[in-house]
Amino acid sequence: MKLAERIGAITGGGSDGWEIYYRTRDLLAAGVPVLNLTIGEHDVRTDPAILAAMDQSARAGNTGYSFGPGKQELRAAIAERVAAQTGVATTWENVIVTPGGQGGLFAAHMALCDPGDRALYIDPYYATYPGTIRATGAVDVPVPTRSRDAFQPTADVLAAHAPGARSLLINTPNNPTGVVWSRDTLETVAQVCRDHDLWLISDEVYDSQIWDGAHLSPRALPGMAERTLVIGSMSKSHAMTGSRLGWVIAPPEVIRAIAVLATNTTYGVPAFIQDAALFALRQGADFEAAVAEPFRRRRSLARAVLDRQQAVRLIPSSGAMYLMLDIRATGLSGAAFAERLLEQERIAVMPGESFGTAAAGHVRVAMTIEDRAFVTALERLCAFAAQRQAA
């Protein structure tokens, strides 16, 4: 007996990039103290009031099938939030509720790409991007960027990869780099999509975590609303990672196509979780800002630490809960640096190589532990790097 080849194809027969995280999890389970900066999980959990709303809904009997694209009231609230943030007219007909942003990414590619189609994404990338594309039968094609460009794609490289492609997946504010793409970059992306008739899938799950400037959705650029799918989620904006509630914003015909997929896969998101999400969205922008505030504060703390040393270089960080550090001066790869840091200092970070080849020689730091421990971890990381640099 054998398994379907499609499962092995999801990882391309190689690593899924999470080895350091798995080792860290095992060490912590064994009682070994580790300063864990590997994963984008809030250190403050879902607000009790949201949990109370979830409990109230469940106890009221909303525990049955939630067949369909989501409750219309929730879809309307998501549309209202998106319209207020982006300035683009959005109605409930442009929204489908999905099992988290990851479910939205899969559904978007399933709706747009046929087996064998070339689907582009930017390197470095969130670790699931290539596997998500492969799972749909499409061919994943990374578009490389450079550290000196803050890992933002350039027009020449985008244009070189675009001919014959069906879609392009982007992410800003960006995981893993913490970079918020400039207007110039997004206008370049939009122009390439228009010139080559590409669908654009814009992962905007970190839209509430902007430390400098403002969020610009490419859907707001001229001629882009009709060819852009936006992925959103309650996970990062409302610290609801485990609740698994996300969405896709798209033209109504795309939403109807994704609804067909949902009927034959997930059967929807539980109604009591949808009700909790509706309650959370009604708390407004100030609530989202409060969830984001620890990461804004830690970004400032990190810059103060990093400005006092020369061993590592911070990639310009303007959003999300991550820092990308260039550690090439140590002579180590990101993977070797992360492995030795874990073994010798019991500090866990993600190698840049976990997110593609473009970030080799870098490590990603998640700003997801309390302030004092976070500063301590960064200071020790910098001292560790300085020792390797001197050697």
TrEMBL record:
E.C. number: 2.6.1.-
GO terms assigned for molecular function: transaminase activity
Keyword vocabulary terms for this entry: Aminotransferase, Pyridoxal phosphate, Transferase
Residue spans crossing the bilayer: none
Enzyme class (EC, first level): transferase
Cofactor requirement: pyridoxal 5'-phosphate
Stored InterPro entries: Aminotransferase_I/II_large, AspAT/PAT-like, NHTrfase_class1_PyrdxlP-BS, PyrdxlP-dep_Trfase, PyrdxlP-dep_Trfase_major
Pfam family, one: Aminotran_1_2
Catalytic activity from the UniProt record: L-aspartate + 2-oxoglutarate = oxaloacetate + L-glutamate
UniProt domain Aminotransferase class I/classII large: residue ranges: 33-380
Sequence similarity: Belongs to the class-I pyridoxal-phosphate-dependent aminotransferase family.
PANTHER family the UniProt entry points to: ASPARTATE AMINOTRANSFERASE
Protein name as catalogued: Aminotransferase
Taxonomy of the source species: Bacteria, Pseudomonadati, Pseudomonadota, Alphaproteobacteria, Rhodobacterales
